[in-house]
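Input record (Table S2, row 217):
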Amino acid sequence: MSRDIHVKICGLSTAETLASAVAFGARYVGFVFFAKSPRNVALPLAATLAASVPEGVCKVALTVNADDVTLDHLIDTVPLDMLQLHGAEDPDRVAQIRTRFGLPVMKAVGVAHESDLPALLDYQQVADQILVDAKPPRHAELPGGNGLAFDWRLIAGRRWPVPWMLAGGLTPNNVGEAIAMTGARQVDVSSGVESAPGVKDSSQIRTFLAATSAYAI
Ligand SMILES: O=C(O)c1ccccc1N[C@@H]1O[C@H](COP(=O)(O)O)[C@@H](O)[C@H]1O
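Output record (LGQLAAA5 complex):
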């Protein structure tokens, strides 16, 4: 049996592109709950979209420094399988969210330099997965989703005891090289499969997933 690369398509906000992501083989679909993002999705729409996702595809909610009241409301409204924490949540807060809400948690950690790598270790005891993403530029509006890649050589050959996913500036054109260089078995893309900020493109989603299929082992 071959082991596919697991792909997460993040920032989905229409029934059509969500269905494309599922049909072309995404293992994770992500919904963004962050008002400043062009991919932000209102809770009622997210609830409808999430309800259409078949068993076996992981429905991920991306939040940024969300408080308990916000998370309570989110989890009560939208059927979810995982929380992606993409803010400055420290390990204690990640552990608290995981315990309180009873959902697996994926913590995003930004990487730009070698000195950013130890932070990945801080979350191994408290997160179910780690998302290794590009660190946002200093004055960026968004803590992710900037279409920015980091130097993949920084993590070439590195392994962590928890499952991890590579993110940041991935596109249909570069995802193969990113997998080959880092050994990632899971990849996450948002802006790299869009025709404009926040506008997902079914054809690019298909091409992205096809580009990863050569790396099944
Ligand atoms: O996509 C967003 O708008 C977003 C907003 C706030 C935090 C994270 C966000 N996106 C996540 O960032 C990474 C990389 O995205 P990209 O492929 O470089 O556009 C990915 O995990 C997105 O889910």
